[in-house]
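We now fix the convention by which a protein and its fold are recorded. The integers have meaning only within a learned vocabulary of local backbone shapes. A record is reproduced here so that you can trace the correspondence yourselves:
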Amino acid sequence: DESRRYKLPWSILQPQPKPVVGLGRARAKWRFHCVDLGDEPSEFCTGPENHWEMEWSCTRSCSSSSSSSMRWRTGHLNVTVSLNDAGCCKVQLQALAEECSQGPQLLCLGPQVHLCLEHRQEPLRAFRRCEPGGPELVSEAKWPMEVSTWPDSNDYIRAWRQLSFMEAASTAVIENDSRLLGGVSVTFCKELGATPCVIGIFDVPMDLIDAHQLRLRTDDLLCLRWQQDSTAKTFGGNRQVLVETAFNALATSGSHLCCDELRKLAEFTGFDGDEEAWRAEYSSLCQELGIQETAGLDMSSFGKLVNDDSEQGCYCSNAELIDLIEKFNRHVPGHGPGSHEPNGPVWVAHTTVESAEKIGDSLQVRFRIREAEGAGIMPPPLLGNEPVPGFTIELIWLPQTYHYQMSALADLPSSPALVKDLILLGGTNVPMAAFENRNKDLSQDASRLGLNDS
């Protein structure tokens, strides 16, 4: 079907290094810096242990010579693709609210790993910088080349901020210096106002930020992707089924959880002590539950433990139980190491960092999504006050020069009058009488202008 054929130039796909193109065959390679937010800072996989080898042919849309190794690992992931003539690849078309022609949105390489063609093709349309609660600056801002004098510093700042952002965003996407964050849980809430939108918040551990040299600053670019997996669909919010499935995922030796099996739950919820500390914790836990240490926890005791939100319990939310099941998922078909990507479309949204604030041991990142950026077609499971797990976020940071420019613009309103006049008016409003007495010391005249030493 010619109407379903799309040309994807290598300049958009951005393989590294350049693809090797031969007669009837091409070979391309991509490299991703992946960071799972649930991993320890010391975990980092590279080389053969973190390499996907794939072949796209006319008979198979996407195949791998080592599908059992196709799993997300923190570190440098190398994806090598061999594409035969007339070969097929898995592409998701862009879902648009209005009726118009669709184009490719994602090139699917494997579980949680995609190339977002939408922001690579049109970064300025995908990433639209907006003031909180205000109109989009693209349509409202004056362009500096069209203005000879600026009556107000705010107009000047808005115009140059938008122009600088457009240049920085285009440069950042072309340079393709990004990080792929996996295992992200995002909390959404609606914000009513002149421009209704959805506020999103997620946390990044500070130790991972230091280990992977992550930069999360205002206006840095975020490409959010979420795909409802079959685990969440299977349980449908039924907590009792979740608890039972989580118990079975941990129990490898029978109908009770022994000391070593329960430690997996403890470490999943934050326990980081040594063997001796865990033995003492396990003994205390068995006493509180009224069970023998040698017998372990049965299903009922496990349910009490994960449903108890007191200091003595180990409460797990539904989202955390799903994460636990997917981590130790022997009893959940179609998930875990070696499993393929869940079926169904991937929800994609583009936005920018609104704020990044250090809270405890994490950096809390806040962003907002308007209807034009994806909020209008958000899947219903995302619209709640509970953290939603399973997000993959591509973090694309803007050049450092952009942040220098923003700092300089922020200082403009408090600058001396002469500086503001020179910038906004192209001259000065200081009366010439201030300069007429040439015999007067120049430094004394300049002091009238309110300049600092520099």
